[in-house]
Predict the 3D structure of the following.
Amino acid sequence: MRFEVLSGLSIIGHTELECGDPPMGVAEGIFYPLAAYTNIQTDVVATRESSQDHLNISIRLIGGETVIPIFIKIEDYSQELDEIWIAACGIDHVQYERLFPSLYNKYFGS
């Protein structure tokens, strides 16, 4: 599945949230930035090790529901490692099973 990443109302990129830890409610993956990401990139890099709540980051299924985690973190190491990761942490198990069935079933069985 593909997800849009937003900062406020602006779409700043997308991700597939291809990895995760179902018991912990964590879904993560490579973040593919769009041009709008440059508006917050400096703040994201500066807050890699602290809260990013002020950036109002959200994730939603393209054409669908919003992922409701406890928090979202973008880890921008594009200057050092040429990669950016995003993690949604604390996703309710019901939503996790619905949005990430392959990760959920891989851990808990089908």
Notes: The two ends are 18 Å apart (CA to CA).
